[in-house]
Amino acid sequence: MEIAILVYEGFDELDAIGPYEVFANAADAGADCTVSLRTVDSAATVTASHDLTIETDGTLDAVDPDLLVVPGGGWNDRSAAGAWSVAEDGTIPHLLAEYYDAGVSLAGVCTGGMILARAGVLDGRSAVTHRGALDDLRDTDAHVVDARVVDDGDILTAGGVTSGLDLAVHIVEREFGAEIAETVTAEMEYEPRGTVHRE
Asked: Residue 110 sits in which domain range?
């Protein structure tokens, strides 16, 4: 499984790096997956919401992802950089809709789910986002669910910032089995919490 995590100016660090570490540890534990941090442009570095600057692994179009993970950050305060500005710009939502139409599964972490909503892929689907953006999600055609992680098959969403860890562990267990997921959580000394709602 090729997993790409889409990073952009102002993304929340933990939204992306938490799942990245889970997937990388899953690969080390024997899961047939690779994970990378990708941009839609050729930027070699991206600065996140708390001023952490990271190097990217290249552009999204250089890989053929099976799963595309979209972090949030900067939605609730309508930041000039972050999920709100990405949604308003429209380029990434349009691209996500194209990837989804091509058969790529999508996962939104925190307010990354709002970018998925702006892409139109949550219409009629169960979803969750950061508690501060739930009213915004209710204003869309998504069906808001009270859960930590919502698994609607080829669309997954997760609540607040740390829920990206729970989302990634859930995906690892779903795709590669409980044994690998348990190996990952033991390695990370992390206990998933909250409910997972499955459609």
From this structure: 2-198
The CATH number linked to 125 is 3.40.50.880
Residue with tokens 């190996």: 183
How many residues in the chain?
Answer: 199
The model's pLDDT over 110-156, given as tens digits with 9 standing for 90+, comes to 999 999 999 999 999 999 999 999 999 999 999 999 999 999 999 99
Number of domains in the chain: 1
Q: What is the DSSP string of 37-59?
A: EEBSS--SEEE-TTS-EEE---B
Contact between 109 and 103 under an 8 Å Cβ cutoff? The reply is: no
Determine the Cα–Cα distance for residues 34 and 176; give it in Å rounded to an integer.
Answer: 13
Distance between CA atoms of residues 133 and 8, nearest Å? 19
Distance CA 179, CA 176 (A): 8
Contact 38, 56 (CB under 8 A): yes
pLDDT in tens, 63-121: 999 999 999 999 999 999 999 999 999 999 999 999 999 999 999 999 999 999 999 99
Query: What's the rounded Cα separation, in Å, for the pair 128 and 135?
Result: 11
Under 8 Å between Cβ of 158 and 111: no
| Beta bridge mates, 150 | 157, 197
Q: Using CA atoms, how far apart are residues 81 and 74, in angstroms rounded to an integer?
A: 7
Q: How far apart are CA 114 and CA 49, in angstroms?
A: 17
